[in-house]
Structure formats: structure tokens, C-alpha cells
Amino acid sequence: MSNVLPLARLLSRPARQGRAAIALPVVAFAVTTALLLVVAGGARMFLVDPRAGAEGGLYGILAVLALVLLAVPLVTLGAAAARLTSRRRNDRLATLRLLGASTRELWSLTVLEATAIATAGALAGVLLYAALLPLVGLLPFFGGPVGVGAVVVDPPLGAGVLASVVLIGAASAAASLRGVAVTPLGVRTRSEAPAKKTTAFVVGAVLIVGVVALVANLGTLAPLLGPAVTLVVLLGLFAGALALLNLIGAPIVAARGRAMARRARSAAELVAGRELAAHAGPAWRRVSGMALVSFIAVVAGCGLAIADAAAEACPLMADIRTGVLVTLGIAFVLLACAVGVTQAASVLEERELIVGLDRLGIPDAELRRARRITVMVPLRWAAVGGAVLGLMLAFPLVGISLIVAPLSVLTIALTFAAGFALVAAALASTRPIVTGIRRGAL
Amino acid sequence: MTSSPVLTASGLVKQYGALRALDGVSLTIRAGESVAVMGASGSGKTTLLHCLAAVIAPDAGSIVLSAPGAAPRELVGLSESERARVRREALGFVFQEHLLLPELTAVENAALPLLLKGLRRQDAERHAAVWLAALGLAGMEGRRIGQLSGGQAQRVAIARAQVTGAPVVFADEPTGALDSATSSEVLDALLLATTGQGRTLVMVTHDADVARRCSRIVRVRDGRIVGDSETDATEALSPASSAPRSAAAWPAPASAPAPASTSTSTPTSTSTSTSTSTSTEANR
Predict the structure, then answer these.
(1) What is the pLDDT of residue B247?
(2) Which B residues in the span 143-162 are in contact with A, Cβ-Cβ below 8 Å?
(3) Residue A440 to chain B, least CA–CA distance (Å)
């Protein structure tokens, strides 16, 4: 084990694909940290700020709701960044294995590097947070700008955020090694056709129906539980439903991929369909943030419809409106970052195949089309899935009139448009990496 | 050798920073030849192959591709997309690491160049299946690459390189990752599928035994050709080969894409037990 540190130092030198593979996860960790600090600082403000006054309890609950909703994409982005970090390792890991390195040494090297990159990103994130703080201070809550002093995180909370980002980085890197067989002859990640996950789909669907039924009947249980416990249960059910959506998302994407490959008429459709069928899980995770964003859009749309009607008379409602818009904005940034990072990771991982397809003379447009399909097909399902789930959960609580209120519909439509545009932009941002690989520069 | 030139390179220069990888290389390759390009590591042999195959553009010089039935075409000066088109339509490739798509089945991998040319899926897979059968892979059409051995995967790569009827096939250490017995079989398949059909094979190799099986050996050192000799390889096929020797056993090339038409040239039926069924779904 004593040789792990010197080895890690040697291997930290930039490789052919080095700069992008190191810079991207650092940026992703920095964005994750900065936004997590913003969200944590904001949630703390709502919990302890005396200006919340009599409504303090409600402010706190709503802040925790935002935190719960944003936790999923934050963790997804952190995990994506960590996976990108470890992808870079694969070829070297095989060589080290050939030279006699033990599994434990490989594990230590991977986790050590991921931790170093996550730490660098987290520290950069603190700087980014410091730069963002004046803007966050301008957010209007409690009848005016909240001020930097109110939203800044205190040192223990800040340290906790940094530690959790580094922990996510290290844990994801360790987990990414689990499904990979590092043999002296190479790193194998796939060989057989993937099994159909019908059971996961059925279980997920049944559980979602159960959650919806529970939410619909929460009113009956509320007198027994009391308002505070009822709200906590409601938040838990929302989070649970979103987690279950991930359970059924991948099997849907796999089935869609199989159908597409079966009916494919062009090389792009065939390649994309088979790719989706074989790697439905990663394909779904890449865009699962969109499910959350569209879920928030439905809930937020209803919230906005309520708040808009009462905002003039009640500052709390105006604050809720600001809160949902801020939550949506942060979710969008996280989604775009996650798609960018995971796309970059998959491009770097598929380097040899891109070279192979290039040699065959695959037209640039055809390759781009295949890549676009593998992102946009799961994205559509994630958007629809999140929105439908939001509708099913919101309907018993607020009724159809608020869901179809013009402001709700407008919020949902704008969210969809912005979400698709952001993902398309994130996808386009990885094009230079593909071009670099095709030209042999990466 | 009296056949007509299919590739004529003259004065090729390629510089990487201070390194002159190709230093005025001139070379004529004739139809039906099998040319082994040999040289030490860093000699410029792979750069030469990549220039001839329109993968990269030389800094100076000329490369004329004279594919049968087409007007001679200068490759130097073409844009990236034009070079990709030349590779797609006139050239075939076999790599050491086969570079097949692991998510696709064997027949889908082999059919990919035909799909890129615009053939209908059904026709492309039918034609690819005939090639796979001719290369001894009948019944394996629906297998994924991970379910094939190294030699079988390399045969799929050969089928992919030849399925369009490319007049010139480039191979970069095609047997480099295989054991000697499998290497010999794959080489048999490659030679029969290319020069055996009157096509041209240009192969980079460091293996003298492999090179001796080609009709001509070109030696490269410091970016220049230092040796060019014909071999006495009269019988390319190794005695133990199981590959079919009869030309009739090999499929005819698929016709040029005809998007409006539903028919392509029917591949010559093989004398081997060609299970041309492309019911790959059954295995998925």
C-alpha cells in the first residue's frame, strides 16, 4: 500500500485525453459545491431567520422541500463527475494490474484520485460561491433583498457541505469500479446482451401507484398524524416517488432502444437503439435530472398559480413564488452540467469506437445524430415521466383547476422548452471532444 | 505484375512538429496485389497507411485512387467530409482491435457500411450474412461481439471491410492480437476475401511470417521506402485453412445504393451452408 501515493503522483500527469478529463469533473464538482452551499445557506436562513416570524415553520418546511428536490440532481452531478474521473483511469488500471498491482491498490488509487479531484473542485466551488453570494443576497424574500449576511453559510455547515461533496466523489469512484472487471488484458465493462428488467419495471410501477394512493388519502390520515408529521410524510412520499421513477425509467429506455434497433432504417438509429438497449441505466441517469425538473415544474406551476393569486396581499406567497423560481433555476443548471459531464465521459470512453466509425467513413452528421438520439429519447421519457408523476401527486392536493391554470401550464411549457434547449446545448458543448478524437488530437 | 494501378502515391510528405514521419514517399499499388508494409516502430508505416487510406492528409504530394469503374481521383486536398466519403464508398478497414460495436450483433456490425451507403436494412443484413457465412460464421449472425472469440470477431471485421465490395482494403496489424493458429486462419480469410476476389490489400505488419504471405513487401525506415520486393507467395492459403478456396464461394459486392429501388444485386449464393436467415432478434 505504501506505493500507492508515489503511483498516484505519477499517474496524475496529463494524458492524451487529460485536460478535458480532469477539467470537466473539477468544474462539475465546483458547480455542485457552489450550488449546494447556496441551497444550504438559503435553507438555513428560512429555518433560523427571525424575519420568518409566525410563518417560520412553513418557511422551514418549504426550504427542506426545495432541499429534498435538489438533493437528487446534486448527488447525480457529483456522481457523474466522479465517474468521469475514474474513466480516465481504466487503461492505466489494466497496465498496473498486468504489472502485479493488487485490487486493493487499484481501488486506493482510484479513490485517491477521485478524492483529490473532488477536493480541488470543492475548493473552487467555494470561490464560485463567494462570487455568487452578492447575487444571492439580492433575492427578494421577507419583503426585500435578504442581504448577504442572511444567506451565507456558517463554517460548520460549509465544512459539512465540502465534506459531503468529497465523500460523494470518493464513494462514486469506488462504486464505479465495482461493475468493472480489471484484468491484465484490459478493463471489461460489457460483453453480453443486457437482461430485460421487467421485474424492476413492474415493482416500480406498482409502488408508484401505491405512493399516489397514499398521497391521495393523506387527508384522512392528517388528523391522526398532526400537521408537522403529515408534511414530513408528504415530503418523504414525493422523494420516494421520484426515486421510484428512476426504477422504471431505465427499463422503459431499454425497451424503447430495442424497438428502435428492430425498426432502424439508418446506421444512426441502429447504433443509438442498440446503445440505449445495452446501456439503458446510464442513458437514463444522464437525463434523470429532467424528470425532476419537470416534476418540480408541475408542483411549482401549481405553487405559482396559488402564489400569484395571493401575492399582493400576502408576502409569504410572493416568497413562495421566488422560492420555486430559484429552485427551478438551480435544477436547470444542475441538469445541464450533469448532461455535459456524462456526455464527455461517454465520448472519452467510446474513443476507440468513434475512431473506428470514423475510419469506416461515417458522416459527421450521422454520428451526431446517433449521439443526439441516445440523449434525446431518454430525455423525452424523463420529461414526460416527471410531469405525469407531478400531475398524479399534485392532483389530489390542489385539484385540476390549479394544474390547468394558465400560469401552471405556462411554467410547465417554458420548463420543457428550457430543459430541452439546455440539454441540447450541453450535448453540443461536447462536440469539440468528438471532433478532437476524429482528428486524432485526443 | 501487369494489372493497372489502383493507388498511386508520389512525393508524400507528412510532418508532426519537428518529426518528418513521411519524407517524399512514392509508391504504386496495383489491383489484386497484397502489399505488406513493414518497418520498425516510428518508421512511418502507419502514417503511410493512414495517408493512403485518406484517414489523414499529407502535407505535400499526391495520391490518386483509381477504383475500377470510376474515374481516377486525387485524394490530397479533399476536405475531411470528402475523405470520409471516399473511405465509406471505396475503402475497407480491418484493425488490430477490430473496433466492432459491442452493442451490435455480428450481422449488424458487418452490415453497417452498407447502411451508411444507404442500403435498406433488410438488404444490408442479408448481404452481410452471406459474407459472414463465407467467412465461416454461419449461424453466428445474431451473436454480440462479446460472445465471439478474437478470431471470430476479426472475421466479422473482415466481412465489414469487404461487404461493400471496396476495391482496396487496409489492414493495420490485423493479426496482432491473435495467437498463431488463429492468426493464420484470419490471414487466410483476409487474403481470400480480398486478393482472392481480385481486390487489393494493403497491410501494416511487424510480423515477417505474415508479410511473407503477401505478394509484395514494402519496407519503411525514417519516413522513406528502403525496400520494395515481390515475394514468392504463390499459394497464399495455409494448408490448414478451412476458408473456402473457390471464388464461387464468395459473395458478390452489394450494388451501389439505390434509395428509390428496393432491390440490390443478389449476393452470389455460397457453396457453404449459408444460413442467410437474419433473424437476429431471436438471439437478442
Answers:
(1) 46
(2) 144, 146-147, 160
(3) 9
Average pLDDT, rounded, for chain A: 80
pLDDT score of B10: 95
**3-state secondary structure at position A266:** coil
Picking from B89, B121, B160, the nearest residue to A265 by CB comes out as B121
Test B99 with A356 for CB contact under 8 angstroms. Answer: yes
- Helix (H/G/I), strand (E/B), else coil: A46: helix
The verdict on A255 touching B (C-beta cutoff 8 Å) is no
Between residues 203 and 242 of chain B, which touch chain A (CB distance below 8 Å)?
Answer: none
State the residue range of the domain holding B102: 32-55+82-238
Asked whether residue B60 is assigned to any structural domain, the reply reads no
pLDDT (tens digit per residue) in B115-166: 888 889 999 999 999 989 888 888 999 998 888 888 899 899 999 998 988 9
User: Does the distance separating the beta carbons of B102 and A363 come in below 8 Å?
Assistant: no
Chain B residues whose beta carbon lies within 8 Å of the beta carbon of residue A355: 99
Contact A274 B108 (CB under 8 A): yes
- Give the residue extent of every domain in chain A: 1-181, 197-442
Which set of grid coordinates corresponds to residue A91?
A: 487503461
pLDDT tens digits along B160-192: 998 988 999 999 888 887 888 888 888 888 898
Q: Which of A359, A368, A371 to mutate to test binding with chain B, by most B CBs within 10 Å of its CB?
A: A359
Q: Is residue B282 part of a domain?
A: no
The interface residues of chain A toward chain B in range 63-92, judged by CB-CB distance below 8 A, are none
Structure ipTM: 0.72
Taking the whole predicted model, whether its pTM rises above 0.90 is answered as no
Query: What is the domain-level CATH number for residue B228?
Result: 3.40.50.300
Q: Would residue B77 count as lying in a domain? A: no
